[in-house]
Design goal:
The chain has a single domain, classed as Cytochrome P450 (Cytochrome p450). The chain is an alpha+beta fold. The termini are far apart. It has 16 helices and 10 strands. The protein is globular, with a radius of gyration of 21 Å. A 5-stranded mixed beta sheet has the order 1-2-8-5-3. β6 and β7 form a beta hairpin.
Length: 390
């Protein structure tokens, strides 16, 4: 019951360290999954896209059996479609995440961050809801091109849908996710029907491709759902985790603030300490022998991201921020064909949000009793009460 152990969820690193020494690849009876804890084994699996694929939709479908909405979601989500269609979708939508596009939106992220900063209350407040989440949702709506977004509804539904990230997933997680996703599906459908979108966002772009026969309308809507979940949750949790790490290491915070041109690279190192998404799933297409262990065909393989990112064979003192260390391989945003499509945008949001708030207010009192979300999978805090101090 490792992944459901409350002590492990709050602080997994002592157990990660022990397992990596003795069993860097081990079988978890609770989830019937193989857990990967070393960077060498993770690299071997993730780099081999021919023999190891994203977790099969069939495995998830068992949890949502009889749930027609969830079944349609799996059928239309590009992550679970065939390799050629998956690559086509990534290549097509990737046009919105090019360096040129990011340069264009950086000013907007700065403007939003400063606007949200001005509205922060002088007394203590929840950093996640009052700062990180607001920036993430604003930027998301800008990229998607929602003209007049209902930001409160979007935020609430995305929070509900975050249950999809938990592992092991339970039937109630799928029901909760489906409830939020179905409501968001309806909202997106209304946005499209009422043409409540700009002509230069992802929604408009996908609709034009749909008209040309590249995608069906359902594929467009279900994959916009994906953008809402990933595009809000990852930067929100990333901003939050990085804020805490820098406040815990004021010397590194000073280095971050004084080297503007290096901040985007520095974000990689801070996220390595506490990646928001704790695992990457893969399924092997044939029987494999890894680290001397036979892995039967069709097994569920779980790469423990924060264990791999703390592998001492690659990083000395992995629990510490070190902006001068040689940049090794890390899997905060995955890798290969299934890497996070919005990786560079998320990093940019984190960079700008941190620089904006910490440049003006470098010192904060953070609630010492803060707790991590009590489910493995999403690695961030339930709430983060902070107060600016002189």
């Amino acid at each position: 019951m490792l992944l459901s152990n409350p002590e492990f969820v709050q602080n997994p690193y002592p157990i990660y360290s022990k397992l990596k020494k003795n069993r860097p690849l081990c079988f978890d009876e609770q989830t019937k999954s193989w857990l990967v804890l070393s960077v060498d084994i993770a690299k071997q699996i993730i780099s081999n896209e021919e023999d190891f694929t994203c977790i099969s939709a069939e495995r998830l479908a068992k949890l949502g059996k009889g749930n027609s909405f969830f079944e349609n979601f799996l059928k239309n989500w590009f992550l679970y479609q065939d390799k050629d269609k998956h690559r086509f979708f990534r290549r097509t939508v990737g046009a919105y995440f090019t360096p040129k596009k990011l340069v264009e939106i950086k000013g907007f992220i700065k403007e939003i961050s400063e606007s949200v900063l001005v509205e922060l209350p002088p007394e203590e407040f929840n950093f996640i809801t009052k700062y990180a989440s607001r920036i993430a949702v604003e930027v998301l709506c800008k990229m998607l091109g929602v003209a007049k977004p209902d930001k409160s509804k979007i935020t609430n539904l995305v929070n509900i849908m975050a249950s999809f990230i938990y592992f092991p997933k339970e039937a109630k997680d799928i029901r909760k996710f489906s409830f939020g996703a179905e409501a968001l599906h309806q909202y997106i459908t209304e946005v499209i029907k009422e043409q409540n979108y700009t002509d230069n966002g992802v929604i408009s772009y996908l609709i034009e491709l749909q008209k040309k026969g590249a995608f069906t309308r359902e594929e467009v809507i279900y994959n916009i759902l994906l953008f809402f979940v990933a595009g809000a949750e990852t930067p929100r949790s990333g901003i939050t985790n990085c804020f805490v790490e820098l406040q815990n290491d004021l010397k590194s915070q000073e280095a971050f603030l004084s080297n503007k041109e290096m901040q985007n690279n520095y974000v990689d190192e801070i996220l390595r300490i506490e990646a928001p998404i704790s695992y990457i799933s893969r399924t092997n297409k044939k029987q494999e022998v890894i680290n001397g262990i036979t892995i039967p065909k069709g097994s569920h393989i779980v790469i423990m991201v924060n264990a791999v990112n703390h592998d001492t064979s690659l990083y000395s003192n992995p629990e510490r921020i070190d902006f001068n260390r040689s940049k090794g391989k890390f899997y905060t945003f995955g890798d290969g064909i299934h890497s996070c499509l919005g990786y560079h945008l998320a990093k940019l949001e984190i960079e700008v949000a941190l620089d904006t708030i910490l440049s003006k207010y470098p010192n904060w009192k953070i609630d010492a009793d803060r707790k991590w979300i009590p489910r493995f999978g999403l690695r961030t805090f339930e709430k983060l009460i902070v107060k600016q101090v002189d």
